[in-house]
Design brief:
By secondary structure, the chain is mainly alpha-helical. It has three helices and two strands; from the N terminus they run ββααα. A hairpin with a 4-residue loop joins β1 (35-36) and β2 (41-42).
């Protein structure tokens, strides 16, 4: 049995039900736009997560730690791939790279593009 992760509820969105309903958020990171499982849609705005507001929040909170941001979102992408098994509405699983990691600046000079 894997260890249970904290499941924060979105700040102003629907309250998630069940122990795995919302993805875990690193300690010290507070997001209003949180992904809900199994859809990985935003619990606040309903858009595919990370939605545009979540990307802004993540970029601001991880501004000094691109590696940490990449690691966090990579882990979320793996969780999404596991959740996507049998979920045809998502399309191809390889498209998740662009959704989760493709928007992250490659280095500090590229931050304006995020």
């Amino acid at each position: 049995m894997s260890p249970r992760r904290p499941t924060p509820a979105p700040a102003d969105g629907p309250v998630a039900a069940g122990p795995d309903a919302a993805v875990s958020v690193p300690v010290g990171v507070a997001l209003a736009h949180v992904a809900l499982r199994p859809s990985f849609d935003c619990g606040k705005c309903g858009e595919p997560w990370p939605c545009a507001p979540a990307k802004v929040e993540l970029a601001e909170q991880f501004q000094a730690d691109l590696l940490g941001l990449s690691t966090y979102l990579g882990a979320q992408m793996v969780d999404a791939m596991e959740q996507a098994t049998g979920n045809c509405a998502w399309g191809r699983v390889d498209n998740l790279f662009d959704r989760f990691l493709g928007w992250i600046p490659r280095d500090r000079r590229d931050r304006r593009a995020a």
